[in-house]
Amino acid sequence: MGIAGICQEASCSPTSLGISDVLRNSDQHPVPGALFLTSPDTVCLPSASHILVFDGRLDNRNDLTSTLCLAINISLSDLLLNAWLRWGDELPEHLTGDFALAIWDCSHRKLLLARDVAGTRPLHFTFTPKGIAFASFARHLLQLTGKPAEPDEERVAEWMGGHFHRSSDTFFEGIQAVSPGHVLVWQNGRHTTRSFWNPLKIPVLRLRDPREYAEGLLHYVEQAVHRRIPDHGLLATHLSGGLDSSTLADTAARFLAPEGRTLLAFTAVPATPLDDSLFRNRFTDETPFARAVVQRHSNIEHILISNHANGFFQALDRCTDATERPSLNPPNAVWLLAILQAAAQHGAVTLLNGVGGNFTLSYHGQRALPGLLAAGRIPSLSRVILGLHRNGESWKHILANLMQPFFPKTHHSVMSFFGRKAAARGVGMGASLSFLEKSGHLAERLHPSFDGRSERVVVLGGLDLEQVYMLGRTVASIDDVVPPLDRDLIEFCLSIPEEICCLNGDRRSLIRTTMKDRLPDMVRNERRRGLQAADFLPLLTAELPAIRLELAQMEQVDLVRRAIDLPRLHRLVEQWPSTYHPSLYGDYALALPRALSMGRFLRRMEDGSLFSTVRSDEAS
Hints:
Layout lengths: L2 E6 L12 H4 L2 E5 L2 E5 L4 E4 L3 E9 L2 H7 L8 H12 L9 E9 L4 E6 L8 E5 L2 E5 L2 H8 L7 H8 L15 E2 L4 E6 L2 E6 L14 H18 L6 E5 L4 H14 L6 E7 L12 E2 L3 H8 L5 E7 L5 H12 L6 H16 L2 E5 L15 H7 L3 H13 L4 H9 L4 H10 L6 H4 L5 H7 L12 H10 L4 H11 L2 E3 L5 H9 L13 H6 L6 H4 L4 E2 L5 H6 L2 H11 L3 H6 L2 H9 L10 H23 L4 H8 L1
Parallel strand pairs: 13-14, 13-17, 14-16, 15-19, 17-18
Antiparallel strand pairs: 1-3, 1-9, 2-3, 4-5, 5-6, 6-7, 7-11, 8-9, 8-10, 11-12
């Protein structure tokens, strides 16, 4: 369950509060004015004057012990206590790692909550009539406070509009999340929040030789992976045909080999062969690319996972209950769940995940063109443009990329003329456009910038990364960790000039250079992208009767009727295709599954069946 607690303004003990059976199984720490609850795998330091709980991993332990002049073998709890006494409320900004932190100061009746900069560990809070309560998981917070689960309509509208999550709202009314890289301080019934990390202030790194950037990237990638390798137990990794997961697998295997340890590598594959020519610039079976990586290492055990290993709704409910939100790509939930189940069956304790890597270690340099033009660096701009064209990009695409930040309104008008409306994101979610318009979430929000770094920061801040951890811990008791979003790696990648990532017009040139002689050329030089759950149509076809039933049940929920374009979903079901055609992808791979995911989420919240797949596991 991670960590949880309830704090009160009045001078009374919260130990008389009713604690649900699930939370009763946790370790309880009553102190004046507060009651904290922790799992055995968390750090807890209670005393007469305060209580500190820490859920996660601390990466800069040696730096802290040196700065604080402490013994190198000091316990983590004592290290955190000394750091708290030294820096007080500024403690979180001195911590590097994946963590959620809560500190209650008994004498001042003050609570501090904080999360790591990438938001890898969840931390939720809500205000009560007498104070404040917090918990790692929103479902535990609902149990702790006795609040009913009710939908937050604003968060639903944001999601249905296809926007990045940029607020502290959750899908549950009255429940908020501490934002990544933020501190919340509550005292005397009032609270303040502040950011302790501003990546936009990271200075740009200027090196003479582009190869030095590759050397630096390799250093930080290796450090990020090494930090997440467990001292004991089996390590596993996702391994697709892409650059990110291949880099993680190669790096982890190299670290494990001298110790005689094995790496489990899981690759999701279509249940039946598919014709790649139907999917533009994509490949549907990642097996050949993954095998090419595996063949370079004698200590990798390669395991293929079918995308039809679980039923669609079975996997969707399991993932939804675990992550406490609808699934953005529901067909992926099937193989994600299957990989976690297989990893647990093989005894893995940690699973490496490459999510977010295309915004850090394998970033494509999307905004290099307008940035170079705005800076007046015409010779460099010309080299990148010519290189992009040589590598297959059309002049139309290059021109649009170059001019979009200068004329965003004109760009949208031109795109609209060619059929791409401002509401395209909502259409791809199966949303009711009138609902999005009323809520103010109809139009695009992410405006193009001259600075690719600012765009990447917005995206990274809206990834809701904690759901990776929540899924792994809930369904498989595995630490699902994300090396590409290691703080030091993020900061290094954001310091790199944009054009270095598409040197000579080669998108993702930096990671290709970094992994030269480490990854197979077929992986390193592949320009197409792997398509996950490419066999979505037969997966959904097998569930057609259940889809019809679900639509009928969803229609009984008021918010579903307002937020989702149900007539469109019914038309898609009645016009169900017998074979795949590229024109079907937007409707049947995106809009229909996403709308079903949100509708079923809201329907199950209303009828009380939400979280039913995890309640028995947590109570046992």
